[in-house]
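Table S2 (continued). Query chain:
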Amino acid sequence: MYDIRLMRDADAPAVSALICHTLRTVNIRDYDEAYIERDCAALDPDAILRRAAYTHFYVVCDGERIIGCGAIGPYWGSETESSLFTIFVDPAYHGQGIGRMIIGTLEADAYFLRASRIEIPASITAQGFYRKMGYTYKNGVTEPDEEGLLRMEKHRTI
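Corresponding output:
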């Protein structure tokens, strides 16, 4: 069984390494190397700490090893909309329900429960997973935007 908990500041290097490893081994199927390396540079440990400062940032652990992560926070300061961010699972653990565990935790979080709309800036690679989790394409747009992401969302009644 895996444990999920809020990220600690000391976890930031491991979280950054997990994200970059996943981008370089999984997302590379859908993005070129330059795009992947820009993402890795933008998600260094300091950036992870900055994101954790305005979100509820969770990590999934197998013993002491961080094998997954995900965050939820306000959508541009909104009180009625939230966003999911930085959802990654170590490729060695894919297919074991960890992504579902992360989504379940984020959807039980106060930021989710207060929101009537939740948005995910989804990678091309992850869009199928998010669709399985009940997220749809925002405004029906199924092509990546200028950032190479698909905006996905879920509406709920509060």
